Amino acid sequence: MNLVTISGPPSSGKTSIILKTIQAVQNRGLKVGVVKFDCLYTDDDQLYEKAGVPVKKGLSGALCPDHFFVSNIEEVVQWGRRQALDLLITESAGLCNRCSPYIKEIQGICVIDNLSGINTPKKIGPMLKSADIVVITKGDIVSQAEREVFASKVSSVNPQAIVMHINGLTGQGAYELSTLLYDEKEDVLTVKGKELKFSMPSALCSYCLGETRIGDDYQLGNVRKMELGEQNDG
After folding, report:
1. pLDDT confidence of residue 222
2. Which residue ranges make up each domain of the chain?
3. Which of 4, 48, 65, 179 is the most exposed place for a label (fewest CB within 10 A)?
4. Whose CA is closest to 7, among 131, 118, 104?
5. Mean pLDDT of successive 10-residue segments in the chain (234 residues)?
6. What is the pLDDT of residue 21?
7. Per DSSP, what are the bridge partners of residue 55?
8. What angle, 0 to 180 degrees and rounded to 10, lies between the N-to-C axes of helices 174-181 and 14-26?
9. Are 4 and 30 in contact (CB under 8 A)?
10. How far apart are CA 224 and CA 36, in angstroms?
11. Are 22 and 53 in contact (CB under 8 A)?
12. CA dihedral defined by 147, 176, 93, 23, rounded to 10 degrees?
């Protein structure tokens, strides 16, 4: 079984891209399944079920969805093997620009959209910088010049990545992506012992543990303060 992790900011078009790509993979006679990780709510699992794709979803609740992802990925892999999948796609919420859900030796794909702003690639950390493939969506809504500038910004942040434009509505470009997702020589038996490509966001402070009050008296643990210059209370 092959394993792929797809992440990206909310509403970037991840699910649409995955559905179109799955169609192309299935045309090769391969069995594909999806595990959707999100925070509070998702009905994307219904879209996969409607398409006849084996699917599970996990909601992290108050936890960081990517920490939740890493804590459950081994069990997810074993679920995929029990389903006799050829390809298991995990979709991570990527709710913060510091997210880093990718695993070494496991293909990671970042999905971002042309409408997010010209400087968005510079604002996204390991989720973009350590991706093997970057998929840019919603290119049909911007000009060719804007598409090229945005792609150039992506390549400047991650020059090693393959950059692709895919239309989530028409599926244009999804076949090309599908050819990169499955290698019959690879077989992921387990991810136990594997390492993340980059460390997760680190914070263990009083607010992580449920504190709601504001002020220095209530801020304990991993706390970082801004440099605002000398205060003048006069």
Report:
1. 78
2. 2-178
3. 179
4. 131
5. 93 93 95 93 93 93 81 94 97 74 93 91 91 95 92 96 94 94 93 89 74 85 74 52
6. 96
7. 34
8. 70
9. no
10. 32
11. yes
12. 130
* Nearest one of 25, 45, 43 to 35, comparing CA atoms: 45
**The two structure tokens encoding residue 163:** 């950059």
For residues 103, 104, 108, 110, the Cα torsion angle rounded to the nearest 10 degrees is: 80
The answer to whether residues 57 and 42 touch, using CB atoms and an 8 Å cutoff, is yes
Which parts of 39-184 are beta strand (E)? 55-59, 87-91, 107-113, 133-137, 162-165
Who's near 148: CB < 8 A, 6+ residues apart?
A: none
- For residues 64 and 55, give the distance between their C-alpha atoms in angstroms, rounded to a whole number: 21
Q: Which two tokens stand for residue 40?
A: 């509070």
What one-character DSSP code corresponds to residue 205?
Answer: B
| Residue environment code for 98-132, b if the CB has 16+ CB neighbours within 10 A, otherwise e | bbbbbbeebbbbbbbbbbbeeebbeebbbbbbbbb
Q: Quick check: 114 and 142 in contact, CB under 8 A?
A: yes
User: Selecting from 3.40.50.300, 3.40.630.10, 3.10.20.30, 3.10.50.40, what CATH number does the domain 2-178 have?
Assistant: 3.40.50.300
Virtual torsion, Cα 142, 148, 151, 153, nearest 10 deg = -100
**Residue showing tokens 């680190």:** 202
Residue 61: the pLDDT is 84
Rounded to whole angstroms, the Cα distance separating 80 from 68 reads 18
